[in-house]
Design goal:
The complex is a heterodimer of chains A (388) and B (553). Chain A is of the alpha/beta class. Chain A has 2 domains: 200 residues, 3-Layer(aba) Sandwich (Rossmann fold); 117 residues, no CATH class. Chain A is built from 13 helices and 12 strands. In chain B, the strands form 4 sheets. In chain B, strands 16, 17, 18, 19, 20 and 21 form a 6-stranded mixed sheet that branches. A 5-stranded antiparallel sheet of chain B has the order 1-2-5-4-13. Classes of the chains: A alpha/beta (388), B alpha+beta (553). Chain B: Keywords: 4Fe-4S, Heme, Iron, Iron-sulfur, Metal-binding, Oxidoreductase.
């Protein structure tokens, strides 16, 4: 007897996915989505717009080799193009594919570049929807940065949705985020903002069709202002087949030159990596039990203060550093001794500029560990308005 | 219920990921065991007698039904089918494998839970009154403040490597149900000239050197709370002793240097730190308060069914008499579900029971669940008309024990059955006392009597503040139990006094029985509790009951 195999319909799979990921945080949705066989081959689509950097940062953390599709309509703000380069380099994204309409298609439909004024829908179709749909053909699912708060028209979106434009699933990891969540995330991770945000553009599309938004307006109110139009088309209509230009690979971030620890010589750890000690001046050494309130500790003139960590479990040095900074000390602050990679963010956030360790520790805990521990530490203190 | 923000969720996911990475590095050798230890401790992972133990925070004792169900999943999948609620509003799983713990943390992160700072020399899980938001006697709900403190203390870069662990408790009510004066910092909500603030005490603690906290500041306005706490921690990080772990807690610094010296130091630090807070914390506090949804309390629904059930069913009546507390709305009650069934391990719940509690909280209790420091589960908003149905459902799940505040509602630490530090067993003693008084059918006649049992001098079972405290020690390889009398963990906190020589494990149950009969003989009437009688008469009649030979001689 033949075995009956039931393949769930896509709507059923989407309902199951939404249920399964009901309690997940955005980054977890993203991480699991990239591995979930139900979602198949996944690409991310990003406009490199006002809020895009949050999701791009997450994807870089989860898997920086994920294909990221960026549609260059050739009508974008020059700031967007520069920002795209900056963000891709900073985050180390290795597979950003720039999608454009073919010159032939543009020559046929918009030879003078004024279609946006006569028929904006056709313009979006030509420059955005069609090229993107073509580029998405090799994928089963795609990640978007859409959020419920952005507009009344997006109030119901969920983590997973059927893509009406093709046999694909749309993944919206940030569906439940608020504007504050995005802002917090960008601040906490020290991510670069699109330069136009500070000029009053909370949502950024093509230059001719984007205007600034006034206080109190819907964040997407500046898109196609004065028109019925609220979405460009890639989020709700199908397009016709069109050839796209091949993607241009982004150059990978240059790795810092390999540094070899040498026995007997200190290794200095900074945000930029391991290095030999470059300081040749006079160092003011403070023990971990130093009482800063005693009159004989004159630290203000010191160019470099080095605070001892006799053991990594002795956290007094963090408070000493913090108090020096609160007292207005602006010079170089160095933690010295047994400080481990996991304490690097604590040292930095307590006011230290750098850490001095010995070659043994540097070999056992290479730069990669220090780097990883200093990435993405969201900080409640920053959020609570406690200044460094 | 506090609804977590995306920031909270991202934070716990990030921490779970980091710990997975740290476990891998320990396995690869990049981290030595010495270096891994404080990292696992910061993530709630202890190495116990038989296995690793994972301690999960239930901040200020508040937990949602979905979170409770996730604990059930964890108990079922990665542990032996149960979890143990502790005296500091945590839950412990005693049998996880180290390699499974990252998966357990991921599962917790899915529902916004974590094990961050539940151990290690850092600021621990912030505790609060388990009746918060429901009690009739409350000035203000302490949980928004507790949540603010949780956020401030979480991953605070300066205070992850303190001299020793650091515990903070918050009470919003004059009747202190959070034992605030046995904490490093105890906060009691007060009002002054119409402004809300906190009376702050420091240097309380149990352990080897039980000390009652001393008031360092009678009134700290709400807006100064975080900088004031930061000033205390900054001072402690500088002057707390690091030469002897048994003398490293803040209470020893307060005892050795004096409260005035500590106050002076804290005031100086406060002056430095206060300008660094720009006031955003107060905006966040408002947002936090808004995220604690208020229960919908209906007026006008009849409570006649409740009165009828009391008349008709003596088992229900007995449970209602012991396990209910006054709610701020007269038609509602606060229900405490006892996890102290006679003969069972105090504070343990099976995964089935966790699911039942989650379901009942949704069905009858507005989806609100609490864990008390007395190791019970609280359903804070139950309409009186639903009590009989709730009780029936609880009994079916073996959760209907009517013993709250009675002799068998015992706090006991895990003791030598689990703990690497313990010198004696505590759980079997608790089980035998509960079983014995159940046989005697005396429990309800005895009335309120708090027995607390610790299996070693570190006093996790809070024996110092038990009306009757039992401390298990090791005397030349034999378990020996000392009895303390007259302890009290409420706003009238006192540390119990040692009654005399200890008892062997075979002698201790009869000794407690003599002691209780001695109390019944001397009390004025049934309304005078053990503690009241002890305070009126002093220790002598109680010692005479404990040591009859000596009294006869």
């Amino acid at each position: 007897m033949a075995q009956v195999v039931t393949i769930p319909t896509r709507p059923a799979r989407i309902a199951a996915l939404n249920d399964r990921y009901r309690h997940h945080a955005a980054i977890r949705v993203l991480r699991d989505a990239l591995r979930d066989p139900e979602l198949g081959r996944v690409a991310m689509v990003s406009s490199f717009g006002a809020d895009s950097v949050a999701l791009l940062h997450m994807i870089a953390l989860v898997d920086r080799d994920t294909p990221v599709l960026f549609v260059d309509t050739q009508m974008l703000f020059p700031e967007t193009l520069a920002y795209q380069q900056e963000v891709a380099a900073k985050l180390g994204l290795t597979d950003v594919r720039i999608i454009r309409a073919t010159p032939a298609a543009i020559a046929a439909a918009d030879p003078d570049g004024d279609l946006n004024q006569t028929n904006p829908d056709a313009c979006c179709d030509l420059r955005k929807t069609v090229p993107l749909n073509k580029a998405l053909q090799g994928f089963d699912s795609w990640i978007t940065g859409r959020k419920r708060f952005q507009a009344a028209s997006r109030a119901d979106i969920d983590f997973f949705e059927e893509d009406p434009a093709g046999p694909r699933i749309k993944i919206n990891p940030l569906a439940h985020w608020t504007a504050q969540d995005v802002a917090d995330y960008i601040v906490n991770n020290n991510l670069p903002r699109h330069p136009l945000v500070s000029q009053g553009y909370p949502s950024i599309g093509c230059a001719p069709c984007t205007s600034p938004v006034q206080e109190g307006e819907d964040p997407r109110a500046g898109r196609w202002r004065g028109q019925q139009k609220t979405e460009c088309g890639i989020h709700f209509v199908n397009g016709k087949l069109q050839r796209i230009q091949p993607a241009e690979a982004e150059p990978a971030e240059a790795e810092t030159a390999a540094f070899e620890p040498v026995d007997g010589q200190p290794v200095i750890v900074r945000d930029s990596g391991f290095a030999a000690d470059d300081f040749t001046g006079e160092i003011l050494d403070l023990e971990s039990d130093t009482n800063l309130d005693e009159a004989n500790v004159n630290f203000r003139e010191a160019e470099l203060i080095r605070i001892a960590f006799p053991s990594f479990t002795d956290g007094r040095g963090f408070t000493i550093a913090r108090r020096l900074r609160m007292a207005g000390y602006k010079g170089r602050l160095r933690a010295h001794g047994h400080v481990i990679a996991d304490q690097f963010p604590m040292a930095r956030r307590s006011g230290f500029d750098e850490v001095e360790i010995d070659a043994d520790l540097a070999r056992r805990q290479p730069w990669e560990l220090w780097k990883r521990s200093s990435e993405v530490a969201p900080s409640y203190l920053t959020r609570l308005g406690r200044q460094a | 219920m506090y609804h977590h923000t995306e920031f909270d969720r991202a934070f716990v996911v990030d921490r779970a990921q980091r710990f997975r990475d740290q476990v891998q590095r320990r396995i690869s050798g990049a981290l030595t065991e010495d270096e891994f230890r404080p990292l696992r401790l910061m993530n709630g992972v202890y190495l116990q007698l038989h296995a690793y133990m994972l301690r999960i925070a239930i901040p200020y004792g508040t937990i949602s039904p979905d979170q409770m169900r996730q604990l059930a999943v964890i108990a079922d999948r990665w542990d032996k089918g149960y979890g143990h609620f502790t005296t500091r509003q945590n839950i412990q799983f005693n049998w996880p494998k180290l390699v499974d713990i990252p998966d357990m943390l991921d599962a917790l992160a899915e529902v916004g839970m974590h094990a961050i700072q539940t151990s290690g020399n850092t600021i621990r899980n912030v505790t609060a009154d388990h009746f918060a938001g429901a009690a009739a006697d409350e000035i203000a709900d302490p949980r928004p403040y507790a949540e603010l403190i949780r956020q401030w203390s979480t991953d605070h870069p300066e205070f992850q490597f303190l001299p020793r662990k650091f515990k903070i408790a918050v009470s919003g009510s004059p009747n202190d149900r959070a034992v605030v004066k046995s904490h490093d910092i105890g906060l009691r909500m007060v009002e002054k000239d119409g402004e809300s603030g906190f009376e702050v005490s420091v240097g309380g603690g149990l352990g080897r050197t039980p000390l009652v906290g001393k008031v360092i500041n009678e009134f700290v306005p709400v807006a100064d709370l975080l900088p004031y706490l930061e000033a205390i921690l900054s001072a402690y990080n500088s002057v707390g002793r690091r030469d002897n772990k048994y003398k490293a807690r803040l209470k020893i610094a307060v005892q050795e240097l004096g409260i005035d010296h500590i106050r002076e130091l804290v005031d100086e630090r406060f002056a430095e730190i206060r300008p660094k807070f720009d006031g955003t914390d107060q905006t966040i506090l408002d947002q936090i308060a808004a995220r604690f949804g208020q229960p919908t309390l209906v007026s006008g629904r009849s409570t006649a069914d409740y009165d009828a059930a009391r008349e008709a069913d003596p088992i229900f009546r007995s449970w209602a008499d012991t396990n209910l507390h006054a709610h701020k709305h007269a038609d509602y009650a606060i229900v405490t579900v006892s996890l102290k069934k006679h003969g069972a391990t105090p504070g343990d719940a099976t995964f089935d029971q966790m699911r039942v509690l989650a379901d009942l909280a949704e069905r009858f209790g507005q989806g609100d669940l609490r864990i008390s420091h007395e190791q019970n589960v609280v359903l804070p908003h139950i309409h009186k008309a639903d009590l009989a149905a709730l009780h029936a459902a609880l009994r079916e799940a073996d959760l209907g024990t009517a013993n709250l505040g009675l002799i068998s509602d015992i706090i006991a630490c895990p003791g030598l059955d689990y703990c690497a530090l313990a010198t004696a067993r505590s759980i079997p003693i608790a089980q035998q006392i509960a079983t014995r008084f159940d046989e005697l059918k005396l429990e309800h006649e005895i009335g309120e009597l708090k027995i607390k049992i610790s299996g070693c001098i570190n006093a996790c079972g809070h024996h110092h503040v038990g009306h009757i405290g039992i401390l298990g020690l090791d005397r030349a390889g034999v378990e020996n139990y000392q009895v303390t009398l007259g302890g009290d963990g409420t706003e009238t906190m006192s540390v119990g006094e040692r009654a005399g020589p200890g008892f062997s494990k075979d002698e201790i149950i009869p000794a407690i029985e003599r002691l209780v009969y001695g109390y019944l003989d001397v009390r004025e009437d049934a309304s005078e509790t053990f503690l009241q009688a002890y305070r009126r008469l002093g220790p002598e009649p109680f010692k005479a009951a404990l040591y009859p030979e000596k009294a006869a001689a």
